[in-house]
Specification:
The structure is a homodimer.
Chain A (H helix, E strand, L loop, with lengths): L15 E8 L2 H11 L3 H4 L1 H5 L10 H17 L9 E7 L8 E13 L6 E11 L5 E12 L7
Antiparallel strand pairs in A: 1-3, 2-5, 3-4, 4-5
Chain lengths: ~150, ~150
């Protein structure tokens, strides 16, 4: 780990990042879902108990947003990140419930310089998240554009 | 359109839903990204002007969350939705900026009854979002599980 700015050249296939963890309270789950995903099993503990999930679960988008925050804090902060074209695949494998500790890791699966814009490149990576019990709760395959180190694109 | 509860049987391939539209203010873009995606081009209008985007842009996750809200309000409310296993593909094609009106539509691409759990089925669909200028800003291919109409699974 370094506090120097991270560029495309600082990523390599197989590189592993521990992104840390997050926990959601029941109030946070309900507040987020009330704004963005107001389905009964995300906002109503009583209805959730009678649902197939047997209790309140976080919106999958909430988990993604929390993982994004971990990614920004661990990897994208002080980097040449130029955003992302999207997500190749996302799986919500198990529900995320209040007060679980969800730990995320990321592994770099591919790094390549852009053919059309040689000042930048694309890093492909996979996020995986597990709960306290070691159960796999989410898998996300995505990509991010990073600028190259200035000395390498002049 | 009907106010009756929507079940798996109410979806068919090729079915089109107009999900309506959303707009984000600069303050909303900054507040969301400060919590979940604090990259300079999402939270700092000055830094954003000097970025490749030329100005502040919404986090792609923010756009997804707003589209999810449109989907819930238009389709999932009063339905037998049992959540989603994930997303097959997501593309943020153009930045979403403050005060743009982003309109979303959804088309059903496949409907099938679960082989292992005959009380439910999977609906595959595509979301597409366009801005005021008719530019395509996002495409999302996803799936959602719906319970079958009770009379059909006894």
């Amino acid at each position: 780990m370094t506090s120097e700015k991270r560029y495309l050249e600082d990523f390599h296939q197989g590189q592993h990042f521990d992104l840390g963890s997050f926990r959601l309270t029941e109030a946070e789950i309900i507040a987020f879902a009330t704004e963005f995903d107001p389905q009964p099993f995300h906002i109503d503990p009583v209805a959730a108990r009678e649902s197939a999930f047997g209790g309140l679960i976080a919106s999958g988008w909430h988990s993604c947003c929390k993982m994004m925050r971990l990614l920004v804090d661990s990897v994208l902060v002080n980097s040449s990140s130029m955003g992302s074209p999207g997500v190749d695949s996302l799986r919500w494998l198990r529900p995320v419930r209040a007060n679980e500790t969800i730990s995320a890791v990321m592994v770099v699966t591919d790094v390549r310089v852009s053919a059309s814009k040689p000042d930048r490149g694309i890093v492909h990576f996979e996020w995986n998240a597990h709960n306290d019990s070691g159960e796999h709760v989410a898998e996300l395959k995505t990509l991010c554009i990073f600028g190259r180190r200035p000395s390498n694109n002049q």
